[in-house]
Design brief:
By secondary structure, this protein is α+β, with helices and mostly antiparallel strands. It contains two helices and five strands.
């Protein structure tokens, strides 16, 4: 009779070990999935941060063009500054940089304003198109926000 109880206990402990291994494996897969999701979010955040930095760089470059008459009059769509329009590798990511310039004339001051809209396009890791844009108004020696 003692032998019989011993064999039943061995089977019971094997079942407990199997359940424990299943629970442990499920937890490991869950943690791995979270880590992969975290890595994707960090990459996406890195792309957005680099895109915003590139846009800020181009905005500052365009704003500096208002210091000279030649630079201000030469500012046009996709023309102006040292950083040219098109595909750019910036901070280990590829972006497409474009800007549109529209000339506006105000009746009250009879000065010519230029409305500049900068757009940055890129493909994220899943090949989904992403875009950010910013717009500012420029006047010779004056920045209008």
């Amino acid at each position: 009779m003692r032998l019989r109880q011993h064999t039943l206990q061995q089977g019971g402990s094997l079942l407990a070990v199997m359940i424990s291994l299943f629970m442990l494996t499920t937890a490991i897969f869950g943690v791995t999935s979270l880590k992969l999701t975290q890595a994707q979010i960090i990459l996406q955040q890195s792309q957005y941060t680099a895109a915003w930095a590139l846009m800020e760089y181009k905005l500052n470059e365009i704003r500096y063009l208002t210091d000279s008459i030649d630079g201000y009059t030469a500012l046009n769509t996709n023309i102006g500054g040292n950083l040219s329009a098109g595909d750019i590798q910036y901070d280990q990511h590829w972006f497409n940089l474009t800007w549109q310039v529209r000339s506006l004339t105000t009746l009250t001051t009879s000065s010519q304003l230029k409305e500049v809209e900068i757009k940055i396009h890129w493909l994220d890791k899943t090949n989904s198109p992403q875009i950010i844009s910013s717009m500012t108004m420029l006047n010779q020696d004056v920045i209008v926000n």
